[in-house]
Amino acid sequence: MRTRERLLDTAERLWGERGVEGVSLREIRIAAGQRNSSALQFHFGDREGLLLALARRHLPRVAALYQERYAAVVAAGRQDEVAALVEVLVGPNADYLRLGPSERAWIKISAQQAGSPRVAIDDIVEHAPPVALQVGAALHERLTVTMASDVVVERLISVSAACSHLCADRARLEDVLDQAPELAGLRPSLPFDEWRANLFDMAVGALLAPSSRRPA
Description:
The protein contains ten helices and no strands.
């Protein structure tokens, strides 16, 4: 188990830094201190198996954040508000990256994978937290009152992907500031809570922007 966790930790760190396509399995094995050339294959099989193991490490905790945020929205009686639903849809990734380097690495990896044209939308949906799918369906129902269904689907996918990449960018910033706090202020950046609130506002604005395509 120690070997398996060391390989996972190393893959998470290197893939978070350089991307999944930028690091070979051999490099991960060597960086993890494994001389046995078959160690990684023994534990994970291949690259996809390693990615799946990382997903199983992080997705349950991300799903719990979705559930907590949605429960808070329901408790406040805001489950019919578009802005509240958008917070549920994009907020957990923002919350997760604040938990530490491991979580930030996962946010960077998942954003890259979700944005890859090699990854099918069905695969993304398969691994999405149930609450995220529920909230996406609720937003689709509300937005199709004023715009075409296929436009709403495109917007939901695009806004979710954009917010994932913005969270990954923030994760990179947090990584840099952890290692070199003297670089704070080198580039303009809001304090985290203000950045997160602005992320929600931008997502709502993008979803609700007027569309030339009306419902059929």
